[in-house]
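Justification of computing resources. Each target in the renewal requires a structure prediction run like the one illustrated here; the chain below, 151 residues long, is used simply to show the kind of job we budget for.
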Amino acid sequence: MTTFYLFSIRPEYAQAIFEGKKKFELRRGRGAGLEEGGIAVVYVSGRIKEIRGEFTIGRLRIGTPQEIWRYVKRKNPGGITPESWMFIKGSRSSVAIEIMNPRLYKVFLSLREIRRVYPDWSPPMGYIRLNPGDEVFQSFILPIRKLSFES
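Resulting structure tokens:
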């Protein structure tokens, strides 16, 4: 069974992911609970505030911020920014999440639309695992995936 996660990603990074320019998502910590082969649903934060697509989680590379920075600079030199270094720099460990098969949904889902049904819902600061019984996952994300990818 595929594991789903909801990732909050800034607009400029989400755009780079969906354009195929960004090959790694960097996070502080060891990537607790992430599984290779899982699906990362992308909530575009900032001024956008929409669920717009997804990618498959490839290899997880865990190490010190310096090790992770050197690794992604070598593997994806044009897809990483100095701001990414500033984000992971102060942590004890970091994870580089390989981005595979990024796909935009045909229909985007706004925070406003979700809150019409679930007024107290908030996107995660980093990422969360989506449980099969999660109401937002069942009511919104699964139907949008079906509409986007099934003929």
